[in-house]
Amino acid sequence: MNNPLHNELKKEFQLERMILFSDAVFAIAITLLVIELKIPEISLNELTDHKLFESLVELLPRIIGFLVSFFLIGLYWTIHHRIFGFVVNYDQKLLWLNLFFLLAVVLMPFSSGFYSAYIFKLLKAPLIIYVTNVCFLSLMNMLLWRYISNPKHKLSEGIQPEFAQYFLTRAGIVTVGFFCMGLVYLFAPKFGVFVPLMIPVLMIIAKRRFILSSKQAQSV
Amino acid sequence: MNNPLHNELKKEFQLERMILFSDAVFAIAITLLVIELKIPEISLNELTDHKLFESLVELLPRIIGFLVSFFLIGLYWTIHHRIFGFVVNYDQKLLWLNLFFLLAVVLMPFSSGFYSAYIFKLLKAPLIIYVTNVCFLSLMNMLLWRYISNPKHKLSEGIQPEFAQYFLTRAGIVTVGFFCMGLVYLFAPKFGVFVPLMIPVLMIIAKRRFILSSKQAQSV
Amino acid sequence: MNNPLHNELKKEFQLERMILFSDAVFAIAITLLVIELKIPEISLNELTDHKLFESLVELLPRIIGFLVSFFLIGLYWTIHHRIFGFVVNYDQKLLWLNLFFLLAVVLMPFSSGFYSAYIFKLLKAPLIIYVTNVCFLSLMNMLLWRYISNPKHKLSEGIQPEFAQYFLTRAGIVTVGFFCMGLVYLFAPKFGVFVPLMIPVLMIIAKRRFILSSKQAQSV
Amino acid sequence: MNNPLHNELKKEFQLERMILFSDAVFAIAITLLVIELKIPEISLNELTDHKLFESLVELLPRIIGFLVSFFLIGLYWTIHHRIFGFVVNYDQKLLWLNLFFLLAVVLMPFSSGFYSAYIFKLLKAPLIIYVTNVCFLSLMNMLLWRYISNPKHKLSEGIQPEFAQYFLTRAGIVTVGFFCMGLVYLFAPKFGVFVPLMIPVLMIIAKRRFILSSKQAQSV
Q1: H or E stretch including B208?
Q2: Which residues of chain A are within 8 Å of residue B32 when distances are taken between CB atoms?
Q3: If you measure CA to CA, which chain D residue comes closest to C50?
Q4: Which parts of the chain are coiled coil (chains A, B, C, D) (predicted)?
Q5: A52 vs A39, A133, C125, D49, CA distance in Å?
Q6: Which residues of A touch B19 (CB under 8 A)?
Q7: Which residues of A54-79 are buried (b: 16+ CB within 10 A; e: fewer)?
Q8: Which member of C106, C110, C114 has the closest CB to residue A30?
Q9: Which of A47, A79, A192, C138 has its CA 20 to 30 A from that of C53?
Q10: What is the DSSP string of A149-167?
Q11: Disruptive mutation site among B5, B7, B23, B25 for chain D (greatest number of D CBs within 10 Å)
């Protein structure tokens, strides 16, 4: 503990380690998705192109589920990448908040696989599982950001208060939006699927308010 | 070997390589757990919400097992993260001690899967497998820390002797606690499950002694 | 945001993070391939060397498929490694282009597994799936390179315009070559398999033109 | 290409990228091994401790195979770690030699799984597969080391010629030793298994010669 420069580098590596560990979890979760795309097994006697195309059509819901999950995990990876671009320090609570966030990521292959396997009927179980997972992921994203952007914890650098608020609002809109979708779906499935459409509308309103507040902050 | 600064950087990278390799193993072990959560297969003719919820209830022990293992591996990752925050050098023995530690981590998905599949009866085999794995993990943690914190090996920096002792005691309490649990369980299963409750009690005692000894060290 | 050196280092780490995340995806995709090589299960009563060698012969198409995919993913890893050797900055669009590129990589185990399982007959479905995947991978490689090498985006350093053009042409040849192969195969399967042979011929022509244009650029 | 310090850092990162990619492949291969340890499935009606212990005994050859492969991959990771501790540069050929080395690593879970599933009879197929894999791994290790330690290629720093020769001899002994084992096993299985015992004997002889030649080099 006698060399301050060395300690600074060590602290930075410890932070990088947490981030690269998260990346590895993201990378595995996003690649494991492909395991659900099982190669159709057809006995050699009745193997024809027609049979193979039929088996691919049967695989279609899983392929769609794969793509949706790939981009959802990819999206949250870019968000994680963006958030941690501000982080300059860490503490035990951040390690654990991050682990809970990763838990939600790791569960995505299961819940989206479950959802895409039974997507074609208006069933409740698959959608509830899936929406719960997305809500949990979005909620952890919110808590992580609130903890990091709070200047009291001295974990981040260069976050303007208006931006912190804007980012928090966005995460909140996703969480609440999917939560409402789940609730409505339970009682009126046909309406539930339209609830997420309100998310982009709210996002635009939040963006306008952010641009306004940034301008006010700059003019002051 | 002519440039001392370059060699210093190379040594540091070699150490980082060992740590990032460990992180990758942790990340894969923690993400592979989700593979055990197999999506229930129900034929389309008898597919109802009732059937799906039933299949989820059947999956419940596996979900609990998944969560327990996720947090156990997550916990040991934070411990590994903390321990290696002190390390500034490496040798062949450290590489191998670390590999044995990782062996215990890699076995967790198997032993916790085994345990959670047969948790509901007071059977001996699943618990013994699980307790053996946790004991082994905790023991390797102890040996790793003892080797790293020993000033003779010149592997670490900034560890105060009282802290080294305290951390060693904590790891020892977990090892012995789970070992006793296994022993008691063999002869009196109903009592065995309560043995781990003594771990937090002993932890508090160890913490008090540590605070006391730190104060004495500071006053000297 | 007050320390410019710190911000520069942070930006560099953010870039490295994207690259190491890509590496993890490559590494998992290349290693997951081996899961398709299932160990043949033979009941102990009829277990003989003859039976085992027979089962290995049956596994042969999968082994060939494994090797082809291993080297394809390996090849694209070296290309990714080479491309990002020029990159010094990132933006949101680069993150997403890279994610689409990784999507094509992640799909390789599926499409090559599908292809190698049904390689022995002149069927259309497996080849179309496989060719589509390779075209998609090659196309993303092209788009990624075009975006990175464009000096307007200020993402790269040290790319000479002739080299940028040459690399783009190469990626284009692979994309178009495999696309033509797929088209010809649909109508005349026996000819289709020879179409990729034109790729190395076009590559040599592209290389000559590149050497010529580099000389002209140097003499100016 | 105007900033030499920046280019030096970039080159170093490109080298680190190759190494960390290798680590990820090692980490996945070593962790995937545990997937072969399938949790025994016993119907709940006949579930007893006796049944479970029996199923664990049946799993024993796989557990042994898992441990052997874990330590073999772990051993080659430490060798890779040691070799690349000398490397200061890279070229395309090194990337590809390393990829071939990783191919041998990635195949280990398959060949050792195959071997450990049918270990108990004096069958030829499993052992030949396994020995071929170990020979291939050891041979690639040899070629990698010969390429890196050759001063002409300017890839490494600080390797004394005697040490380069010694390390090459060691890798050669392992390659030839396992190759002979395979050959002898084909014609006289009962003798074949004793051939690897000559490896440690030859290792000791190689070590003595290395110590001798180092002393001579120092005295000159």
Answers
A1: helix B198-219
A2: 28
A3: D125
A4: none
A5: 10, 33, 6, 45
A6: 17
A7: eeeeebeebbebbebbbebbbebbeb
A8: C106
A9: A47
A10: H-GGG--B-S--HHHHHHH
A11: B25
- Among chain A residues, the shortest Cα distance to B19 is held by A17
* B23 contacts on A by Cβ (under 8 Å): 17, 20-21, 24
Strand partners, C156: C87
User: What is the chain D residue with the closest CA to C37?
Assistant: D110
**DSSP codes of every residue in A99-152:** HHHHHHHHHHHHHHHHHHHTTTS--SHHHHHHHHHHHHHHHHHHHHHHHHH-GG
A37, two tokens: 């795309």
The neighbouring-strand residues paired with D156 are D87
Average pLDDT per consecutive 10 residues, chain D (220 residues; last block may be shorter): 66 89 93 81 77 84 85 92 91 94 92 79 81 93 93 87 88 89 84 81 88 78
Name which of A75, D21, D160 is nearest C31 in CA terms: D21
Q: Is the Cβ of C160 closer than 8 Å to some Cβ of chain D?
A: no
Cα gap D93→D116, rounded to integer Å = 35
Cα separations in angstroms, D190 against A47, A163, D194: 45, 74, 8
Cα–Cα distance measured from residue D31 to residue D19, given in angstroms and rounded to the nearest whole number: 18
Q: What is the residue whose two structure tokens read 């370059």?
A: B6
Q: Name B156's bridge partners.
A: B87
Q: Do B31 and A25 touch (CB under 8 A)?
A: yes
- C-beta atoms of A123 and B48 within 8 A: yes
CA distances A159 to A89, A141, A213, D37, Å, are: 14, 16, 14, 48
SS3 D83: helix
- Both structure tokens of B84: 């290696």
Contact B121 D28 (CB under 8 A): no
SS3 B149: helix
> Nearest by CB to D121, which of C24, C47, C74?
C47
Nearest to C49 among D10, D103, D124 (CB): D124
d(C-alpha B94, C-alpha A40), whole Å = 46
Please tell me which residue of chain B has the smallest CA distance to D81. Answer: B14
Cβ neighbours, 10 Å, residue A117: 18
Integer CA distances (angstroms), B24 to A17, A202, C176, D76, in order? 10, 39, 38, 17
Cα Rg for chain C, rounded, in angstroms?
Answer: 21
d(CA A90, CA C129): 46
Asked whether the beta carbons of A133 and A104 are under 8 A apart, the reply is yes
pLDDT tens over chain C, length 220 residues: 446 666 777 888 889 999 999 999 999 999 888 877 877 777 777 778 788 888 888 888 888 888 888 998 999 999 999 999 999 899 999 999 999 999 999 998 888 888 877 766 667 888 888 889 999 999 999 999 999 999 898 888 888 888 888 889 988 998 998 888 888 888 887 777 778 788 888 888 888 888 888 888 777 6
> In angstroms, what CA-CA distances link C85 with C78, C79, C100, C156, D209?
10, 10, 19, 9, 43
**Backbone dihedral angles phi then psi of residue D87, each to the nearest 5 degrees:** -80, 135
Query: Using CB atoms, which chains have 3+ pairs under 8 A with A?
Result: B, C
CB of D11 closer than 8 Å to CB of D4: no
Distance CA A52, CA A140 (A): 42
Report domain extents, chain D.
4-159, 161-220
Structure tokens at B78: 């934070």
Distance of residue D51 Cα from the nearest chain C Cα, in angstroms? 20
With a CB cutoff of 8 Å and minimum separation 6, the contacts of C15 are: C87, C88, C89, C90
Query: What does the pLDDT look like over B139-180, one tens digit per residue?
Result: 999 999 999 999 898 888 888 888 888 889 988 998 998 888
At B70, list the tokens. Answer: 């996720």
| D30 within 8 A of B106, measured Cβ to Cβ | yes
